[in-house]
Protein 1
Amino acid sequence: MSLHLLLQSLLRRKVVTGLLLLQLAMTLALLLNSISLAGQTWQKLHEETGLDLINSLTVELKPTTPTLRQYPALADLLERQMAAVRALPGVVAVAYSNQPPLQRGGTNGNLYDPDNEERTNINSVPVYQVSKDFFDVLQIKALEGELPQAPLLKDGEDISPLVLTQSLAQKLFPNGSAVGRQTNGGTVAAVVDDFYGQRNAVNSNYNRIQVAPLFSVDWGYNLLVRTEPGQADVVQAQLATVLQQVDSNIEILYLRSFNEEHNRLYRNEFGLAVLLGLLSVLMLLVTMVSSYSNAHFHALKRQQEIGIKRALGASKNMIFMELFCENWLNTLAGAMLGALAALALNQGLSAVISIPAISWWLPLLATLVLLICVSAATWYPARIATSVSPATATKTL
Amino acid sequence: MEQILYYVKVSWVSIKRAPLPYALTVFILSLGLGVFFANATFYYQMNSDPLPHKSDKLFFPMMLLVPYECADCKPPSVLSYANVQKLKSSDIPSAEAAMYSSDGYLRLDSTQLPTPVNIRLTEPDFFRMLDVPLLHGAIWPDNKSRQDIVLRKAIALKIFGSTDVVGKQLLLDDRSFAVVAVLDDWQMLPRLYDANNGNHVDEVEDVYIPLETGYDLNYLSNTQSQTFDDADYRQLATDGRSKAMHQLQYWVQLDTPAQQQAYVQFMTNLAEDEKKAGRHPSPVNNQLPAMRDIVAYFGGESGDIKAFALVTLLFLVVCLFNASHLSLNRYLSNQYEFSLRRALGASRWQLQQQMLADVLLMTLFTISGALLIGFGGTKLMNYLWPINALFARWDLTLMLFLLAITLASSYLVTLYPALRASFGALNQQLKE
């Protein structure tokens, strides 16, 4: 089997070969970028958050009457709600918080060392006002200092100390312990493990926490619940009823597991990865149809040629391989073009979304997938072509 | 007419002779067009202009009037009450309205369960500038604080069971408000008057109350609020009015280029005066984007929809290549028939008429398939990106666009194969 003859055979039908090459190239380009994007989304969905995503729940709620949104009625409501949730079988700990972790954005502010404001200022640090069990719910351990157990008030003003996550503390005070140091938001009482706060923050592990009364609940507040392993679904199913029984003057805005919250963070990326994946499958299907049609049509057109070859002693396997080799050659040429098209598409996509560069091994993998699909599509027409007897094929000569 | 029917009949006979290749061609073309059309629906609707006659006359002034120094900062995307009052000192705009949004609970009386509602706190010019249609009543006459409320039609029906409710009282967060107007059906898509943080994809609000009332009653913004000094954001009535607490959108209507030029100059003078008075240390940085550019200004265009648009276009091209490929094979298989017709005296024009009948049939089948796949595609995209659900709407323009693109695609797919089959050496073709 000569490469020259194979090329000549392909060049005899330039338009058809050209169309097939373009299709193969574009299919490979889309396949490569889809795999890249899917890989990036998978990594994000499986990133380390520092939280128990499976056994933790969050309920966002808001009192529906202005009276209940003000202290002391609000303090009483919070205590009653937390007591009722704590009494549920399977609940390990419950705490209130002005906002949950694992969000895109929320309440945040800047934080700096007043002695060195210009150099240390960090924007958009999430601000949490929480009850003391917040750390127990999230299973966050103190690395330095002591966790505050109650709000600290002076002349009616809240001066509760701060708890910083480790990454934030190191960024703010790189030359030593943060405990006892002053910031524009108060004194640092403790440094705790990192956990995922807000995606839009400078660093998703930067968090600033105060054991303090809720500043305002006009935007709602959250009850964070940790359950015993495997009990999250059971507790989740009861929470709405229990909270309505405590006080019906509330609106439950949503009730989700931490895992659902985490997935929602990357919903757009997940959606795009699914759509591109689906489109890649459709493109492969279209390419297979094309390869099938191409092989079938040209096997029929070359029936006489195949008959003569068979009459001259060519075996069925040789004819079979010849047809396959033609398609493989086409596919490999398309794959080379496709690698270039993939780079161009990657550039185009990176102008509008975040997409990683294509790894060197991906074109090899995608070409292999393409070869398998094209081979599967070519197999049936090649088998039909080789099954024609030399006598029938050369009858009209 | 008879001749056309004959050509259609011949096409139909040809399809029936080899239905599988034809079905594959139609399927692949429908697939490409359907997927393209599903994404084009969102792309077109999200980039549409809800006020085409006015969106180049409505402007959002933004100034870097803040108590901090920053050489390369953009002006805040929401304004403070105090800065809005400074901008209002100009009489250049034909209309102007400051606004923000909040949440509340609505009910007829304290025995009823409260209904959660979105509130827009704004001024009377909001309704005039944005051509908001009124069904009953009239908007409050001036910018003063008053407990008047305007209801959207759907919420009036939900609370009262009727839309003719002007003059009736209801409770918003347990405070009594009088209904002064009910809006007719209105859905501004995209909601360009509040485009920051991607809010332009949301629905318009359920109820509308005066801006000053919102400040008096301490309604907090439910989208973006920023404080640049020691303002307590819970004290809107006091700190909100006097300190650097930013939460307002502010729109002005500037009808002529002369007005627009004069307003730019006014903003420059205002910024320089404020700087001289020592009220802001940052360099002057004024922005005046028009409503039609506001989503791009805030960087709110959906990257995912754009990315998918690029890919669906590519997919459509692949499907066109594939359908052309299949179509070419089909025509080459039928070449003997074409050649025979030529040999019997059919002109090339008659053969091209036959081809046009093929195009018409293919368009008919393809558009049916494309609409089905497009419908499924929009449902899937709604499921994966529920935030854009309001934009999954087909209108006449969009349907005509689909029809035109299907016709063009069918023509392209049929053109080259038909030309190939109707030209060439007749003797050779008949011999084959």
Protein 2
Amino acid sequence: MQNLGIDVLFKGTNFVRLLSGLWVAVRISLISVIISIVLGLVVGALMTSKNRILKVIFRIYLEIVRIMPQMVLLFIVYFGTTRVFGWNLEAEVSAILVFSFWGIAEMGDLVRGALISIPKIQYESAMALGMDGKQIYYHVILPQTIRRLIPLSINLITRMIKTTSLVMMIGIVEVLKVAQQIIEANRRSSPNAAFGIFAVVFLLYFLICWPISKLSVYLEKRWS
Amino acid sequence: MENSLLSIKNLHKEFDRNTILKGINLKLNKGEVIVIIGPSGCGKSTLLRCLNGLEDIQGGEIYLGGKLLQKNAKDISSMRQKIGMVFQSYDLFPHKTVLENILLAPVKVQKRKRAEVEAEAMELLERVGLADRKNDYPRQLSGGQKQRIAIVRALIMHPEVLLLDEITAALDPEMVHEVLQVVLDLAKSGSTMLIVTHEMAFAKAIADRVLFFEHGEIVEESHAPKAFFERPQTERARQFLKSFEY
């Protein structure tokens, strides 16, 4: 069997560089996920409002996010808006903006779905016990909503982490880009590095996402 | 007149241009048990929901202990604490255990001491025969057990009046009895109740007063339930009761 090219990983600081690239990807997704969850809860609650205009606005927002490929959004924000509006956006900030824009919409839709799936009788029986609006949401509706939400939102979170691999297209040096650089630099000495290094990248993504989806399965079982 | 606990004056309720309640007048005295019977869709459940401020009303007034009850008024939450209600569908909070379900409102809403409420909860659970299920989740209970817990959850608020909205209608027949037995015991201990039910034998046994509802009106009212069930005065009530015979 041919050499798999994993040895390149242990040359110089290659492995550390790869890990720092991974941290860039994780940092972008972590910040975006936190923003998405917080604002998604608000947007989701607003989506259930009876206000027609609000409903239409969020509908359009959600459709845009669903239809538009994330890479196009990244390009518009990073290459497009910076020129047109003359502002100076860092690539990482652009990435966080785009990922949050996407995450808030999808998270909002998940929250909306979870909220409307709580039967009306839950609100009414809480009211009948003399609870006011805040108490009903805090003690009765929110805990049930979050339970329904967690498996769904974890799926969204892992999708967001995986999609950060796109940000190298706007010049961010994240794990995939570092991998490419390492492979390029060692093209002559280890032509097989493409296999070994990308396999390691795959493994790194797996190590991040797998515990998260395991957690979701665990929570789902515990609360079913 | 003034010692009636709950008094309803000329209550009107419309929904999508249909009139559901056509001017109901009713007074419920302390310790009295009123049973409302009537065909489906006659407005009896809607009446109970109005009494707890769960429905908008289009006319009339509801007084509890002399105080006007209004759905959107600021004091509606404190008014509702005086009115216990148990619904047809099992309405326990699924993410809380039996004990947590019972303690939630007295501790968080009435701000009573947890230890004191818990002792009372255990007493009530003992009374309905479910003390050993206090740490179970609702999904682990049968329908009849859930309804008995729902009754305890309402009782622990010390309501002045208890509204029971067809609480056995969604139960398997063999579970109806255990729930109704609890309600009968409550009546014996002097609870004031307004009950909507399709269980005629139960109605006859428990009622101090029977109301026969149809098309949003009280068609017949009787202070002598036994006589009512044997010889209803109106033709419509007679027809209705006949539908329960085979």
Protein 3
Amino acid sequence: MTTRTATPTPPRTRPSPSPGARRARLRRWLPGLLLLSPSLIVLAVFVYGLIGWTVTLSLSDEHDALGNKGFVGLSNFVVLFTEDINGRFTHSLKNLLIFTVVFMVGALLMGVLWAFLLERGVRGEGFFRAVYLFPMAVSFVASGVVWRWLMNSGTGDQAGGLNRIFHDLHLGFLENPWWTDPDWGMAAMALPAIWQLSGYVMALFLSGFRGIPADLREAAAMDGASTYQLYRHVIFPQLTPTALSAMIILGHMSMKMFDLIMSVSGAQWITEVPAVYVWQTLLTSDYAKAAAISIILLLLVAVVIVPYLIYNNRVERRS
Amino acid sequence: MRLRTRTAVAAAGMALALLASGCGADDGDGGAGSKKVEVFTWWADGGEKAGLDGLVAQFKTDCAQYEFVNGAVAGGAGSNAKQVLASRLQQNDPPDTFQAHAGAELTDYIKAGQIEDLSGDYKEWGLDSAFPKGLVDSLTVDGKIYSVPANIHRANVLWGNKTVLAQAGITVPATTLPEFFSQLDTLKAKGVATPLALGKDWTQQMLFEAVLISKLGPEKFSGLWTGQTDWAAADITDAINDYKKLLSYSNKDRDTFDWTDAEKLVMEGKAAYQLMGDWEAADLDAKGFKDYNYSVFPGNGDAYQWLADSFVLPKNAKNPEGTKCWLKTLGSAAGQKAFNTKKGSIPARTDANATDYPAYQQAAIADWAKGKPVPSCPHGSACSQGWQGAVASAQGKFSSDGDVAALQSALVAAAKQYASK
Amino acid sequence: MSASTITPAPEAPISKPLARRPRGGINRRSPLGRAATYVLLVIFLVIVLMPAYVLLVTSLKSGREIGVNGQWNLPTEWTFASWEKAWTALRPSFIRTFELAIPVALISSALGAANGFVLSRWRFPGADVVFTLILFGMFIPYQAVMIPLRQVVHEIGLPPGIPTLVFVHCVYGIPICTLIFRNYYATTVPVELIEASRVDGAGMLRTFASVILPLSAPGFVVTIIWQFTSAWNDYLFAIFMSNTRNGPITIALNALAGAQSPDYAASMAGALITSLPTLLVYIVLGRWFIGGLMAGSVKS
């Protein structure tokens, strides 16, 4: 952060304040805390409290509607990794991994490329920017309707959607089973997500590009740097924080992906990810197992987010 | 600046008022009140909706003092509805009655103490003698009956496009699996793109079960769900291999297909056969397609793989008397007729007059009377919801990788995990 | 937005998200390079618009025309029948979704403004830690709270459907709205202004009402758009907490499009109807919409 978040509170280093001074200080910040407290209480209950509840559930044996009979330690977690039928859980993790990698790489490449093209000044920039960004306003449920149609897995004379275009253009080799491919189906499933989020990445990077002081560029130009050198050594290094936040945003969205998959393929084996598995498990009233999967999902997100939040907090404090 | 504070307060008040209006707008038909009977189903369109409407008309005559409230939840072939229902039951906010497949699926609710014993009412309404003994037995858990079946469907029916079959010189339906395979080969040789049309998850489960019935016979097949037949045995492996061979005659994009998409392939003449429950008859008729024939799945003989939609009285229903009136109407001869002539199923009652029904149902009524009943897992008469979910997942995997050993060991594991429950 | 993203600190004022590009002798490019740029931009434009084309064209076709052949062609016979069918199916939930998204947008914005003010300009010891703890709530996968949440909202007596969803969206919208306002106040409200108000002897609430709120309009626009869009587009909470009879439009659309033998023309018309309000917000208030998205970008 470039702006000061300096607080109007008195310096903390004052040696042993008198009771009066302490009361005055208290009077200074207590109203703020009071104003904040409804939100804090609600979040304490509905974020941290409920997470705690889910953790408890994941350590119990509430496997049906009959309710909780007892504490079983980590066995629900162990079962997920070792005894789940057909390795269903590890399969869903594998799917999530493929999806996440393709989605993040795809959206970042597209977004950076678009930002790069637009950044250098083109006519109608506002128009291009607006069109590239519009998928962001649409829900995954709505875009799922059209992507399910586009990614029709029929080929040859049965081809529909994108395969139809490839067929009609005599590009038959491009026809493919999309998300129904047992090995790489999840890569196809990432396409709608890339379509939807690339514009967002573009917007992030555009504002990143624009945040670079003009005199930096001019200085580089004066030194006789080529365009390549300018980007390689001056501009891109400045964009590391932008790239980092784009990755965090895309990454945590990807982990939670549910709407898109439900509306494109519905819940099925080939495209199952942990978030969908939770839903399927709840359908059979296996609350403990659903809780265990949810907690693993939470941990996956936390592993990335918590260090990032701490890092961010530090950076802010330093500035 | 006091004015500004007041503005802020007013804004907050308005927000609250909006919130309250949100509440108010939604409260209209929640199913509360002593006169209303909220009937929870997943019958939202097509022949199912028509059947429900027929039943509701009868309910309005028989139970004029009550008001029917339609609690249908559409989508996902019932899976959306089941999730909503599970959440409402968990929240102790049940509808007045809900649809559930008769048989093992009901035991989930019974064990959870979520539905009431109806044995007394069965006697009072004379239902214990009106339904066939076999059906009453499978509805009975520890001497008590918890649901009233509205109908009987048959799952193991093979539907064919007559023109396509005739072009391939097929006039007589196959009666054994080997015969069926040779027919499929003929069709393929004649250039039929998809000899056997197939859809996703539960439709694949149905096809697999039909093969199992052919391989094992009705008794051993029923034993799979009670622990008397071994899932690890060699004849199961054979069945899986035959099923795998059947998949090779089916459309590759089956995992993107609902049963009606597969039905469309048959109607358009792109496919010759489809295995589907007998709700297909009503659906084909509704769509004006006449060029079809039907037969029991090859090798199934007189096995009648049944499933029944039934209704229950949930604990803590708001209007139990209204629910009972609904259930009584449902079980009555008039109610069953009003429902089943439209839905395409046959009445569960034995005293129904077959001539009231269209041609397919007349044949089905005759078959039901003399056939051997076997249950169905995807339709809840054979297994619990948890078991069903595990099998569906394993079947989904098999559809994509064809790994015979993996499917069998998954089926064994699922039986081990759920059979005792 | 399904993207319930983000972290601290917009650098530019939110209302002017994309500063004008720097002018100067930087764009020394050959005409060839310039042409290539435009060709690429247009190719991507076509790709991005392709799904929109399919939606529009298919929704205007009659049932007979939706086969495998000519899928990509314009309709030979234009009809609004599918739009009517979709509208009939979606209308009740369309109205309900407004009853959901508008209160959510207003309530969470109000909470966010109060929190953001305290955390940026009326701080207390440990405010940073508290802020980080609040922020974490934005990133959690909601599955991790969903199972008990369903029970809790029932036990506190919230009527099912829209009222429950309003509450839930407000609660889980607190982090993002707090973040947006905190960053907004930190960048636009000078500390001196607060100090001056304090010197005048104003208490916190008066300072907030008389100094801060009058400056807050741009922040409110952003949070209102953000929360409106994310409540409108939400599917996860909706599917857990409501159903087709009392839930928002995403549930109704999913039922329409996912029902047995989906009618593609009606599904696509339904998808367009579902997207209209958020698209309208995007088109009319695009600047602030983008501002909302940018509110999340970190530029430490």
Protein 4
Amino acid sequence: MSKFLKTLAVLAPLSLLCNNVAWADPDAEDGAKVFNKCKACHAVGEGAKHKVGPELNDLFGRTAGTAEGYKYSPAMTKAGEEGLVWNDETLHAYLAAPRGYVKGTKMAFAGLKKKEEIDDLLAYLKTHTSGAAAPEEKEAEPERKSEAPAPTEERKAEAAPAPDAAPKTHGVFHLGRPATADEIAAWDIDVRPDGHGLPEGRGTVAEGEALFTDQCAACHGDFGEAIGRWPVLAGGQDTLTNDRPVKTIGSYWPYLSTVYDYIRRAMPFGNARSLSDDDVYALTAYVLYLNDIVTDEDFELSRDNFTSVEMPNKDGFIDDDRLSEPHYAGKAEPCMNDCRPGKAEITMHAAVLDVTPDAEDGEGSPSIE
Amino acid sequence: MTNTPTRRSFMKGGLGAGAALAAAGLAAPARAEGDPAITEIQDWNRYSGPGVDASPYGKPSKFEAGVVRRNVAWLTADPVSSVNFTPLHELDGIITPNGLCFERHHAGVAEIDPHKHRLMINGLVETPLVFTMADLMRFPRENHVYFLECAANSGMEWRGAQLNGCQYTHGMIHCVMYTGVKLKHLLDEAGVKTNGKWVMPEGADASAMTRSIPMEKAMEDCLVAFRMNGEALRPEQGYPLRLVVPGWEGNMWVKWLRRLEVGDEPWQAREETSKYTDLLANGKARRFTFLMDVKSVITSPSPQAPITHGRGRTVVTGLAWSGTGRIKRVDVSLDGGRNWVTARLDGPSLPKALHRFYHEFDWDGSELFLQSRAMDEAGFVQPTKQELRAARGPNSIYHNNGIQTWHVATDGAVENVEIS
């Protein structure tokens, strides 16, 4: 394999070699699937922006390290300055072993082992380079190879398939493999107070009420008042200094994002992840309504207006200052003798409350009179 | 070990059986002088027992059937999202047996095929990664003994003595040896970006538990663990993978760990806003109260483990721990905190692990008010409940590390009380 690549890169323009080997024709559709491996870091197509890696529109003919607004590794910038231009040949060599071809590139990808995959991928990328879609070949410039970094033994090692097929591209131990964009999207559903992670979507109070009645009221009550010991969702405002405060979403929760995030990941209880993103917007809107934070049944919550909703208790939290409490602040040597006056008197019995579970079958806690 | 009711009833049963045998003339020809447990040949001394294949995975003796986790049904709405308690009063040493480690689930026990389990690292990292369990086993492993205490342990006691047994007042704790991989290795493998300040672990169960952990802690001593006490994690403890956050509240030790996201801000998840925040008397609540403070409890005698031997030599034993590090000293009082003696620490003294203490004395049969008071190597001393309540008000139920009082009556019965 490595020998083949070396031959490919040093001696033969790609197009010539292709004619001698029975490869399948490059297929842009298959290439779109191959591109799934790249999507975590690269965007291509209409409106594509730089992500972890640069956007790839009009890649063919672009000088390496020159996409505007993207911060390249010094190595890639230098390669461009030395004349590296992206075309079939250079992309083939680069994608087979990125870090072998441009030593010091920050592209962490291991490389594509199968030549067919690279062919298909390039066919797909050409559909996003104006004028390059037609499979015309031989635009490779033979003199390019003198300017390119010389193939090295390192490159040979990079290109060799790892014994267990694990990519050796990241970290210290080279364990695990890069996550795909779809995999990350499937699991990364968390939402933060600044709106980070909110999906597209919308839902109204009225829509939320219907969903709530069907899916939530059995435990939380029709008005969020709760059945049994299930959590109370509404009311309790201005009770936090009471002897028995009522901690609800309206009275206690500092951020609306927590409501969206929690419903989306864990509710309804026993059937998590069954609600659509719009459903969750609607339910979140309805919970706001139950707490009088919005009062209009037509109120629609969406990604656009989400972060403008402020929760009543948003300023109700402080950082951990336990160590300033008198019993900790002093760090005094504790008293050993005559520490309290008089004999100890019982002020409260647990047994009187009688809330301790009986040990079944006579085991465990003996009864105390 | 203490004389549990189980053992007492067993002894009675033994005597009865011996008497029956004697009456039928099947035992020794003449009634010997002394303890029939000695003078009569016991079944187990005569007949061979089950062979090695009878119990491929061994269980405790049937006479220990009472040593189990217990639930307090009225605490929660549903056992699927609930808690049970470690029977501390029945245990000794510092290691909790795997099957007795208390459980706290938010959507029941996830049953995960380890071959289908994946751990993802994403967010502010150079390379988002996916690991299989086999991948994780190839990182350098470490073994550490740590306690895990729920922040709500003793929370039901905040407003006063309520539950009569240290299993219930203090049983949301366990201590095992974990085998796992340093979280730092995994984060380094993905390459944390310079603005990555927080890590969010996420569970694979139906509650998809999330918490925000400061990067400094994540890099310091957190583990991604796959074994406890040498064997695979139990399903109820997060099989096949859980996070270990030494010295910090149990809720952060996400079970069934499937994802670690790196971010520049905390996520403000439900469990770190609506729960596990500490409402003070002024209406403000502390948040991110991660550390478990210095604490101890006498496990025996205690309400479920009364003194049954009468006056004379008596062993007081208990546990002490601190999220700060090692326990330096434990004092015991027999008179409700008027006078203290320093107890004897025995067994390994490991940072952020349970410590076992003993105090042996001759009981004169008079009423006792037993207390223990721990001091950690940072110099923090376990406070009284009164001191804590004075500082925090009536509703700060999490992180109750106040000194516990057990009242021992003249007959040896023990009760959970509050005293003057």
